[in-house]
Every structure is written in structure tokens, then in C-alpha cells.
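WARN  no MSA supplied for this record, continuing single-sequence
INFO  ligand: nicotinamide-adenine-dinucleotide
INFO  echoing inputs
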Amino acid sequence: MSATKPYSFFQSVERSFDKAAKLTKWDLGILEQIKACNSVYQMRFPVKMDDGSIEVIEAYRVQHSQHKTPCKGGIRFSDEVNQDEVMALASLMTYKCAIVNVPFGGGKGGIKINPRNYSTYELEKITRRYTSELVKKNFIGPGIDVPAPDYGTGEREMSWIVDTYASLKPGEIDAAGCVTGKPITQGGVRGRKEATGLGVFFGIREVCNMEDVMKKLGLKTGVEGKTVVVQGLGNVGYHSAKFFREGGAKVIALAEYEGAIMNPNGLNEEEVFQHRKKTGSILNFPGATNLAKNTDALELECDILIPAALENVINGENAPRVKAKIIGEAANGPCTPEADEVFAQKGILCVPDMYLNAGGVTVSYFEWLKNLSHVRYGRMEKRFNENMNMKIINQMESLTGKTVGAEEKKSIAHGADEQELVHSGLEETMISATREIMELWHSNPDIPDMRTAAYVSAINKVATSYVELGIFP
Ligand code: NAD
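INFO  complex generated
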């Protein structure tokens, strides 16, 4: 891929930033400060493997911006991890948080390992050692830098991190807020696991509900009946596929590492997931056709393409063959700047990663707030609201002489629980961000695409924050 990739991931982010920065009023100094990665911590540490050998592990944590603290961003386990990638991902986090009004600076971490090559015990040792390295250098903490899951990591790793942190900081009452994406028993919030995929769905659904945008693409308004292709059946891809299917769309193809499958009548992500678990591959799924290469899925005729695996998968080389009308960037950086140019020529709408996959960080923010307040969402008001709603219904019944059915009564009166509140906060965030970016894009004819509009929005917010901090007179 490197032969067709003239820009590194970080350079691609800088390039998109510069394109947008020209359309803002901020002076060069402020723009340079926003763009720079403030702190880069590259580390090496030894870990004893199960067979007694010692492996030196390469890992990173980058804090891109502290204009708001703590810094926030996931930790990735992949053998592709390198400093450039972590810097790019940390920068995207700053812009992402700004767009969705989450008061964090951007951060990101990475450990250069393929988790499939290690036992659970080895992974635990690596994660715990990485956490203690972060503690030693003051690179983690509820008010400093708060990691989360990313590619190759999940609840299990977050548990190891919070446990290591808490044991090194005895008595720190807010220790649970040192990392998000934790299991519920360890201080997690209901609704975090599906948050990124659900956010992707909310964002694309909002775009599909915009009549003028759909008309331009030659599509009908609404998600229902649209054909969807998803690349990656991990956390983000699985949940994106699930919510599109539940929202009435048809997921006609799924691509994984080992291959891709297609069924024009629609695929059920859970059945495919179970098939993969059983057989070790998504290929040969009953009723579906295997595609020759996994990347063929990206070039299928469809309404919505959701790349939810890794960066740079749609580039100058394959973008001309992409036939989707809408690309929803669920992964970070799946489309290169060269691909963006092709989309502009072909009239493909690319909904950018920078805000579209912000569901994870938005709900992470809710989890962090829960950890600092030490109380579950809805605990105080759920029953109160339920009782109050019941009184209102009863009053209405006695005033009108009519009665509401028991089930109906229960559904109207019920007080919101944690998951409902989290989903509602996420829906509001994604709808507002989509509208804000679209309005910005359509109000300025110099803004060429939605990605640039998202960058302009982010730059304006971060720059305002710097100016109001008094750093730049
Ligand atoms: P994950 O590890 O849960 O899943 C990724 C999946 O992609 C895996 O199943 C993997 O086998 C598959 N994959 C890898 N290479 C592939 C290829 N060439 N073709 C098809 N499939 C391939 O990771 P995730 O958390 O779902 O993250 C996916 C992307 O979303 C990453 O870019 C990540 O940075 C981004 N993201 C994740 C979150 C989150 O909350 N987890 C939030 C924002 C952005």
C-alpha cells in the first residue's frame, strides 16, 4: 500500500487541517499550536512470556492537546502501530471532541503487538506494565489523560488498566475515571460498548433525513430500504451493521480480515458473527456468496459504505472504483486525501470520521462524569419520574373518565434508566453535530466537502478556547 500512499497518516491529517485552516480567520501561530502534538511518549519495556523468553514491547501515548483536560483517546493493539499513526489518531481526537462539544483534549495510545499472538496472561502483563509506565510519567489519571478501547482492545483491557492504576494510587477516590470503556462492575456505563456504532447510525440517519442532500445524491429520504456494506465486524462494524439493520436498511455485504461475503437479501450481523466464531471465518456463510478478495466489498454497488476496520483502506488507487453514494467513516482515517478528491469528482458524499465515530468518546465522557459523581445515571430520578407520570395519567383518567391500558400506562410512565439516558445523550450529540457541520458546509461556498467543514468547525472551537484561555492575546 505504501507505493500508492504518498502521505503518512499524520501528514494526511495535517493536509486536511491546512486545507480547512485557510478558510478560517485565525493567525498562523494559533493554527500551528492547534496542529502540533504537545507530548509524545515513546516507550520500550520488557515482558516475560509464557515460555520464559523476554520480549521488548514498543508502545506509545500521545497527548495532542491540553487546551482542555484531561486528554482522551483509545489504546490500540496492532502490529501496525507506529508513532506517526498514534500522533494522527491523537490529533483526530482533539478535533473530534471539539466538534461534539466534549470538553477533552485529544490523546491516543498504541502497543505494537498483534494480540492474536499472545496468551491472555501475556496480554494482561503487557497491559498492566504499559499502565504502570504511564503512571510513572504522569501520563494517565482522571484529570490528566483518560484512555479507552480502540482497535484490538475492549472492556477486558480497560479493567486491567483501572485495576493497575487504582493499586498504584491507593485512596484516589476518582481512580475509576482514569479510563473509560470499562465493564459495568468496574465503573463502566451502560451503552458504552455499542456507542460508536450507534453514533455512526445516528449520524448517517440524520444525513439520510436531509431531503436536499438525498435529492442531490439521487436517493430517497430516510435510512429504510438503503443498501449497506460494512468492512470490519469488530466492535464498531458489528454495532453499525446491527443498528442499520434494525433501522430498516439492508446490510448486503460484510468484509473481514479473511474475506468478504455478500447477500443482496441482507445479512444478519449476529448470525455472521456466530458463524465466524464457530468456523474461524466469515466465508461460506449459508446463503451468502464469497467475494474473491475482502477489498472487493468496498467496490460493490450500494447506497452506504461503512469502513469500520483500519485507516487508508480507500485511497487514490481504489477510490475510482467505489460505487457507494454515501461513505460513513466509522473507522479512523479510512479514506486518504487522494480518495477525497475522487469523491468530490464523482459526487460521493463522505461523512467524516472526525465526528461520525465520536459516539465512543461522547459516551466515554458520560462514563467519566458517572465515575466522578459516583452515582449511576437515573438512580435518583427514575422512580420519582415514574411516580409523577403515573399520577398525571391517573388524574387524566379521572378527569376524562377514560382508561389507559396497563401496558400503555407502563410505557408512558416509566422513568428512564441509565442506558436510555446514555442513548438519548448520544442521539442528541450526533444529530446536533451533523446539522452543525452540514449548515457550516452549505453556508460557505468555499468549503469543498463535509470533512473540511468538520475541520473548520473543530479549528474554530479549539482556537476560541485557546484565545479565551488567554494564551494568545
Ligand atoms: P476491533 O478490533 O473491535 O475491530 C476491528 C475489526 O476489523 C476486526 O474484527 C478485524 O479483524 C477487522 N479487520 C482488520 N483488517 C481488516 C481488513 N483489511 N478488512 C476487513 N476487516 C478487517 O476495533 P474497533 O474498536 O471496532 O475499531 C475499528 C475502527 O474504529 C478503528 O479505526 C478505530 O480507531 C475506530 N474507532 C473505534 C472506536 C471504539 O469505540 N472502539 C471509537 C472511534 C473509532
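The mean pLDDT is 96.
INFO  checksum written, moving to next record
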